[in-house]
Design goal:
About 30% of the residues lie in helices and about 20% in strands. It contains 8 helices and 9 strands. It is elongated. The protein has 2 domains: about 120 residues, endopeptidase domain like (from Nostoc punctiforme) (endopeptidase fold (from Nostoc punctiforme), Alpha-Beta Complex), CATH 3.90.1720.10; about 45 residues, no CATH class.
């Protein structure tokens, strides 16, 4: 069973249990990010001021320009509307959590039918900071016995690898006395 089992299978109720509510509950449950519960009147997508992008911007979400999806990203898209009236959340590798009108909330693969509709891709800085804090830095000396690094033969090999032949750049010799086009090393 999914770790989001309490968010999957909800009945759809306009303005109460919809795509924004499922995203709001996800961010609260998984990241401790509290999104305001905006009023969403019937047919809110006909009101340009109710564009979901504007609502997310006020809560600290920032646009992602490189289209690399990460867990916690918000994907906004228009569904039969001229404004972004549907939100989905990336919850796993290539999987989204969302809630379509008159359907149960669901986990679904981020297939082209959804990815091609995304007009706004957002990420919250708090999620980025949490992810960066999880990255552990490991130094070479922490994983290799120091005595091995003191081996003169290994030290010579390391120096050779770090200081390539004079005039060589990334596996190429510089032609024309160090100027001009690079010639492959033989």
């Amino acid at each position: 069973m999914s770790k989001f089992h309490n968010l999957v299978g909800r009945q759809y109720i306009d303005g109460k249990q919809d795509c924004y509510a499922i995203a709001r509950d996800y961010y609260s449950q998984e990241w401790g990010i509290e999104l305001p519960n905006y009023a969403r009147p019937d047919r809110f997508w006909e009101d340009p001021e109710m564009d979901l992008y504007q609502l997310y911007k006020t809560t600290g979400f920032k646009p992602v320009l490189d289209h690399t999806y990460e867990v916690g990203d918000a994907l906004l898209m228009p569904i039969l509307a001229s404004i972004n009236n549907h939100a989905a959340v990336v919850v796993d590798d290539n999987e989204i959590l969302h809630h379509l009108p008159n359907q149960l909330s669901s986990l679904e693969r981020l297939r082209p039918k959804w990815a091609n509709r995304v007009m706004v891709h957002l990420r919250h800085p708090q999620i980025t900071a949490a992810r960066e804090a999880e990255i552990e830095v490991v130094h070479l000396h922490e994983v290799i016995d120091a005595d091995i690094l003191r081996n003169p033969g290994l030290q010579a090999e390391i120096e050779k690898a770090l200081e390539p032949e004079r005039g060589a750049v990334r596996g190429h010799h510089l032609g024309a006395g160090g100027r001009g086009e690079a010639e492959p090393l033989s």
